[in-house]
Design brief:
- By secondary structure, this protein is an alpha/beta fold.
- It has a single domain, classed as 3-Layer(aba) Sandwich (Rossmann fold), CATH 3.40.50.
- Strands 1-2-3-5-4-6-7-8-9 form a 9-stranded mixed sheet, sandwiched between helices.
- It is globular and about 55 Å long.
Length: 322
């Protein structure tokens, strides 16, 4: 797809018009307080792998409503002292995979906690965390309209709560320097990273081609999935658009970005028909902390891929010099 969104000069200043709901902060404070009534109970079980330069641990911690969430913690084997940690979230439909699937950050000398995404992990990589969800109503297949009838039952309330608890689980490991924690992810993972950065104290945020931003524009601008799950739902549930977008406002990456203070490195593909450039820039321009953008003019949702991986590595090294 050629450039279809706003011209680059307009993207650089584009902002979403709608403010956050008046009780946005109160809603999330209550949500996290409810989750923290349950003991975090983070466990790290060593896993045997064929890799000789890293140690891998099977992670379990209590997420939303105390429900167990899985993950992997990967550490460089040759380590001295406590390490900065990258807490990473996964793209739509994927799961945590197998022990040893994720070696990049540990190979750079960082601790790396990868959070499994509840209910996903069957689309392109396996996962191990079910979504035990009360109050579920009709939905389009996928996750975008799961529990959309209410902010209290919406799927991403549980995922974003899990993400905050994942940061807390990372800090619970004795090898991790709790003062140096980053959140990161691509696509859905980038949207979850923005939510985590807006909800808890982290030092760095690395959202690549982030999903879950500026829902009302994305759903009206592109007909690609996963945003098309929302439009498919509204095609059937006629007259519910105001209610649906009212719920989604509590989960919009733009509003989390406006509350995030961590230094951030964003990326965008200007031909991205999955996460339109204007939705990424809406989050970027709302971001409250120091921020940088890497632009890939001729790329779609793949964004910068391995080139952006090197950008992330340089960004981390600049902020966390060895």
């Amino acid at each position: 797809m050629a450039h279809f969104d706003l011209p680059p000069e307009q993207l650089q200043s584009y902002r979403a018009a709608a403010p956050a709901p008046a009780d946005f902060d109160a809603f999330w404070a209550q949500t996290l307080a409810e989750a923290r009534r349950f003991d975090l109970n983070a466990t790290f079980t060593p896993v045997r792998t064929p890799f000789v330069t890293v140690d891998v641990f099977d992670v379990t911690f209590a997420g939303w409503a105390g429900q167990p969430v899985k993950g992997w913690l990967t550490l460089p084997r040759a380590r001295t002292g406590r390490l900065p940690c990258v807490t990473e979230f996964i793209g739509y439909g994927g799961g945590r995979g197998l022990a040893g699937d994720h070696l990049g950050y540990a190979s750079m000398g960082y601790a790396h906690l990868l959070m499994d995404t509840r209910g996903q992990g069957s689309g392109w990589r396996q996962g191990d965390t079910p979504d035990d969800a009360p109050g579920a109503g009709p939905q389009v297949p996928g996750f975008m309209t799961r529990g959309i009838q209410s902010r209290d039952t919406y799927y991403y309330r549980r995922v974003f709560t899990d993400a905050v608890r994942a940061v807390e689980a990372a800090r619970a490991h004795p090898a991790v320097d709790g003062a140096r924690v980053a959140v990161a992810g691509v696509s859905q993972g980038g949207g979850v990273a923005l939510a985590a950065a807006g909800l808890c104290d982290v030092q760095l945020c690395l959202p690549d081609v982030p999903f879950l931003c500026h829902f009302d524009r994305a759903a009206r601008l592109v007909d690609s999935f996963p945003y098309a799950e929302i439009t498919a739902y509204l095609k059937t549930h006629r007259g519910r658009a105001a209610d649906v977008f009212g719920v989604l406002a509590y989960f919009d990456g733009v509003h989390f970005a406006a509350r995030a203070q961590a230094s951030a490195l964003f990326s965008v593909g200007l031909m991205d028909e999955v996460c339109p450039p204007s939705t990424v820039y809406a989050a970027f321009n709302a971001y409250a902390g120091p921020r940088e953008m890497r632009v890939y003019e001729f790329n779609r949702h793949e964004g910068g891929e391995n080139v952006q991986a090197l950008e992330r590595a340089a960004f981390l090294a600049r902020h966390w010099p060895s």
